[in-house]
Amino acid sequence: MRDAGGCRAPQARSLAPLKGRFWAAAAAKEQTYEYGSTRYLLLCGLGGMLSCGLTHTAVVPLDLVKCRMQVDPAKYKGIVSGFGVMVRDDGLRGLARGWAPTFLGYSLQGLFKFGLYEVFKMRYAELLGPEKAYRWRTGLYLAASAGAEFFADVALAPMEAVKVRIQTQPGFAGTLRAAAPRMYREEGPRAFYKGVAPLWLRQIPYTMMKFACFERTVEALYEHVVPKPQSQCTKAEQLAVTFVAGYIAGVFCAVVSHPADSVVSVLNKEKGSSALGVLQRLGFAGLWKGLFARIIMIGTLTALQWFIYDSVKVYFKLPRPPVAQAPKSPKKQK
């Protein structure tokens, strides 16, 4: 018994460190998402797909009434009355009109928007160096987001054109499968990309404001509102800060991008129209039709997008860099 017991104890003791090393190795293996790695950037792109695709699809009814207020203000005079007109004309199912191109288009846009933003932000910061990257961080956010959105809109443009045609031209086609082939048959490839220039005019300022305003608002909230440093906040508290900062950024985004959004809506509705012709016809007042609906929609959208995007980062345990801080100068470190 003594021999048996004496044999077991050392065996148990020898297995304990092995077991500890096994779990440590497993934990280390889980944390393979190094900041800036390909896996990290792909997961950021996935977060962007989910955040943009899901949120834009969720607000299709509001987007629908906003588009119709822009292209037919005589019939759709307000948000509430506009919903009433749509339900009367198309039924409740009509409120989801255009959901498929919305989901596909904005999922692709989110992939490039968020994924490339992270790429450009890191690359520009590397080129500038720590001190200049901090000093010029607002410009860095603006440049990174503008570059990302340029490519994101090329991916979005075809589905955006289909969406607007379905939503604003009754009787044209009710589904993506019916609308896209008909547009190609009648107008060729130009039908899908004639709105890309106004889309850039709408989306690039919007995204520049969305990212730069969000980054600086998060920074301001942690500095002046949140009573403790970011490192001491729980994940839930950090996500709450993300949501608030996202909504604030969204309000500014809506105002900046609304005139171009009005042009895009009318342009994609009408065959053979040009951006300049639509702009002249709408006039200054016409460019701002539907702004209140857009503020509600974009404020909510932007807040939810940042919340979903950060939630994906939390779920996959992606490294979350701290809020921007001035780098310590070499003289002070000595």
UniProtKB/TrEMBL annotation:
**Spans through the membrane:** 40-60, 291-309
- Which organism does this sequence originate in? Panthera pardus (Leopard)
Q: Where are the Solcar repeats?
A: 39-123, 136-220, 237-315
Q: How does it assemble?
A: Interacts with PPIF; the interaction is impaired by CsA.
What domain of life does the UniProt record list for this protein's source? Eukaryota
Q: Which GO terms describe its cellular component?
A: mitochondrial inner membrane
What's the protein here called? Solute carrier family 25 member 3
Annotated Gene Ontology MF terms? phosphate transmembrane transporter activity
Q: Which InterPro entries match?
A: MCP_dom_sf (IPR023395), MCP_transmembrane (IPR018108), SLC25A3/Pic2/Mir1-like (IPR044677)
Q: Is Mitochondrion set as a keyword in this record?
A: yes
| Record's catalysed reaction(s) | phosphate(in) + H(+)(in) = phosphate(out) + H(+)(out)
PROSITE patterns, A to Z: SOLCAR
Where, per UniProt, does this protein localize? Mitochondrion inner membrane
- What job does this protein perform? Inorganic ion transporter that transports phosphate or copper ions across the mitochondrial inner membrane into the matrix compartment. Mediates proton-coupled symport of phosphate ions necessary for mitochondrial oxidative phosphorylation of ADP to ATP. Transports copper ions probably in the form of anionic copper(I) complexes to maintain mitochondrial matrix copper pool and to supply copper for cytochrome C oxidase complex assembly. May also play a role in regulation of the mitochondrial permeability transition pore (mPTP).
**What's a BP term from Gene Ontology annotated to this protein?**
mitochondrial phosphate ion transmembrane transport
Name the keywords, alphabetized. Answer: Membrane, Mitochondrion, Mitochondrion inner membrane, Repeat, Transit peptide, Transmembrane, Transmembrane helix, Transport
Which family does the similarity line name?
A: Belongs to the mitochondrial carrier (TC 2.A.29) family.
Lipid bilayer topology? Multi-pass membrane protein
